[in-house]
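dumping this here so i dont lose it
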């Protein structure tokens, strides 16, 4: 069955762990250009919302979903069961150490670094196949700056970075109001090639 990106946020079990919102997931997944047989690594997976959608797109591939918080790992497993995803492995651990036994990948998502951004990027780079895609999401300006500095110092990546500011229209009584979500920076990096 073909999967179309954009599962509603409300369909995921969330708990107290941050979740990549629907609109941001769609953009990150689009930049990742996931093929059905891709191997994908998701670092700082949170609730697993991005991992779940990646696994549905790569239904003949495999997703390794890394999360350091025990609650997050439980949520990833619960969400995988909810969406009947069998090609996802939730890994409890801290990156970059948690990446050490993983296979070569077509896509690496970095959504949380716990202060280890440079080491995680370096470990992800070693695992990323030629023409692979590394997608980094950054909430803070510092993470954006550091990610750009690290990636721009590599001569084998094409970088496409942008900031996303999403506002949802919510009805309040008889009025429609814009409710802003936090801005998110997306740094999409293609190893050894150009973004189309």
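and the seq i came up w/
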């Amino acid at each position: 069955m073909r999967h179309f990106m954009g599962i509603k946020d409300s369909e995921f079990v969330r708990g107290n762990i941050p979740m990549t919102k629907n609109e941001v997931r769609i953009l990150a997944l689009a930049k990742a250009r996931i093929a059905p047989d891709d191997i994908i690594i998701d670092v700082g997976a949170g609730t697993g919302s991005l991992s779940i959608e990646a696994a549905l797109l790569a239904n003949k591939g495999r997703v390794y979903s890394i999360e350091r918080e025990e609650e997050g790992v439980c949520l990833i497993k619960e969400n995988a069961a909810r969406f009947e995803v069998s090609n996802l492995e939730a890994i409890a651990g801290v990156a970059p150490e948690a990446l050490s036994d993983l296979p070569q990948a077509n896509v690496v998502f970095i959504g949380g670094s716990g202060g280890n951004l440079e080491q995680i990027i370096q470990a992800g780079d070693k695992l990323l196949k030629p023409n692979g895609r590394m997608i980094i999401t950054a909430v803070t300006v510092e993470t954006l700056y550091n990610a750009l500095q690290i990636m721009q110092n590599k001569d084998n990546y094409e970088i496409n970075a942008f900031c996303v500011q999403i506002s949802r229209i919510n009805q309040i009584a008889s009025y429609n109001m814009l409710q802003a979500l936090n801005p998110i920076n997306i740094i999409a990096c293609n190893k050894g090639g150009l973004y189309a």
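The helical segments are 22-32, 49-57, 70-82, 117-127, 141-152.
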